[in-house]
Specification:
Radius of gyration: 24 Å
Strand content: 15-25%
Shape: globular
Structural class: alpha/beta
Helix content: 25-40%
CATH superfamily of the largest domain: FAD/NAD(P)-binding domain
CATH architecture of the largest domain: 3-Layer(bba) Sandwich
Largest sheet: 7 strands, mixed
Length: 452
């Protein structure tokens, strides 16, 4: 008789938990996974997928306007928010079904309900105790709204996907990727949009040029941005129909909806981790080593709950590392260098490698190549939209350290250049590569003049 009910019990069936569970089962482990909300986690249900669908929707209004420059006479378009939400929900429901089939097909037992830790090898779910050789925590994160007066009147990105009505005026708080994405979405759907951020530039974790350039482009498209601003309280306006957000200093902004996108917290509260002896960081994140093992040898964690790199593909890769090292040949590790990412604001942002500041700090002498221009597409639309391309290069070796872009399809373009950086490509090799003409992407292999 087996010592434990399962070899691996995963709490949380998001991207990382599902990947680890499936792969472990294929390696011969007996695996169960528990999920209390929805399969696929944040990405499928309240993140990457619905947000990208909303982003697609938001671009259409602008595209209709641009069509006139190419000879298309388009009647005034009408947007149906309820149709978008219903169609989005249908796709999310389909994806939930896909995840269920993936787990079932791999032989993973799926348990619906909230699982908590009883001890280092035992979980409790719906009054039932289940033992496991290893327990994996993959419960993700949750949006945080600061505890200011009137905070209950604000929403987070979670609720933004299910609004009963599209607001006429929206106030988005934050300067990170979720904030700029939703500000672009609302603006693209015709909402009077204001972005409030306490910092001096958007996307502070990225190359400085990206945040500054993106802000200018968003403002050009109609988003009002208030830097060095912070909301102290939110209240119903005198008429009771809208909201009034009072800023530090006394100024006030009016809106029908206030959405906070100022951060996410690891989803560890009430799981019994401390009771089991698992060390947590002050943020609530599970503290793990390079193999994703916690302070308790039988308990592992990955994804947003460890608060390292909050990206779905990273959680997937971490899941492979955990499963391989526990049940496979072992020796697999996680490489966090050169992780590409895209921000689906309007315009898009794509980036891989080191920022200018990071490169200077690590390598000292670097060369910069920077180009901004109006893409061919908009020479007939008159939109005035600009694109930014930037390369960060180590001077001594000519190795390309960073590739950064603001412009249409930035994520699609940067993905290929991420492969080049992973292979250690040099600026000379970039220069020797023939560009595809006429494209925006060719600029990255035709920039010859140093700008810094």
């Amino acid at each position: 008789m087996a010592q434990y009910d399962y070899d691996l019990f995963t709490i949380g069936a998001g991207s990382g938990g599902v990947r680890a569970s499936r792969y472990a089962a294929r390696l011969g482990a007996r695996v169960a996974a528990a999920e209390e909300r929805y399969l696929g986690g944040t990405c499928v249900n309240a993140g990457c997928i619905p947000k990208k669908l909303f982003s697609y929707a938001a671009h259409y209004g602008e595209d209709f306007g641009h069509a006139a420059g190419y000879g298309w006479q388009v009647a005034a378009p009408a947007f149906d928010w309820h149709a978008l939400v219903a169609n989005k929900d249908r796709e999310i429901e389909r994806l939930n079904g896909v995840y269920a089939k993936l787990l079932g097909g791999a032989g993973v037992a799926l348990l619906r309900g909230r699982a908590t830790l009883a001890d280092a090898h035992t979980v409790e779910i719906d009054g039932r105790r289940i033992s496991a050789r290893y327990i994996l925590i993959a419960t993700g994160g949750w949006p945080v709204v600061p505890p200011i007066p009137g905070a209950e009147l604000a929403i987070s990105s979670n609720e933004a996907f299910h609004l009963n009505e599209l607001p006429r005026r929206v106030l988005v708080v934050g300067g990170g990727y979720i904030a700029v994405e939703f500000a672009s979405i609302f603006n693209g759907l015709g909402v009077d949009t204001t972005l409030v951020y306490r910092g001096e530039r958007l996307l502070k974790e990225f190359d400085a040029d990206l945040g500054s350039f993106l802000a200018a482009q968003m403002q050009h498209k109609g988003v009002r941005i208030h830097f060095h601003s912070n909301i102290e309280q939110i209240a119903r306006d005198a008429g009771g129909g809208g909201l009034r957000a009072t800023l530090a200093g006394g100024a006030a902004l009016e809106a029908d909806c206030v959405m906070y996108a100022t951060g996410r917290a690891p989803n560890t509260r009430g799981l019994g981790l401390e009771h089991a002896g698992v060390n947590l960081a002050p943020s609530g994140a599970v503290v793990v080593d390079s193999k994703f093992q916690s302070s308790v040898p039988s308990i592992y964690a990955l994804g947003d709950v460890i608060d390292r790199v909050l990206l779905t593909p990273v959680a997937l890769a971490e899941g492979m590392v955990v499963a391989e090292n526990l049940f496979g040949a072992g020796g697999r590790s996680m490489d966090y260098e050169g992780i590409p990412t895209a921000i689906f604001s309007n315009p898009n942002v794509g980036t891989v490698g080191l920022s200018e500041a990071q490169a200077r700090a690590r390598y000292g002498e670097i060369d910069l190549y920077r180009s901004s221009f109006g893409p061919l597409r908009h020479q007939l639309t008159g939109s005035g939209e600009q694109v930014l391309m930037k390369l960060v290069v180590e001077r001594n070796t000519e190795r390309v350290l960073g590739v950064h872009m603001v412009g249409p399809d930035a994520g699609e373009i940067i993905q290929g250049f991420a492969v080049a950086l992973k292979c250690g490509a040099t600026k000379r090799q970039f220069d020797a590569t023939i560009g595809i003409h006429p494209t925006i992407a060719e600029e990255l292999v035709t920039m010859r003049e140093k700008t810094g």
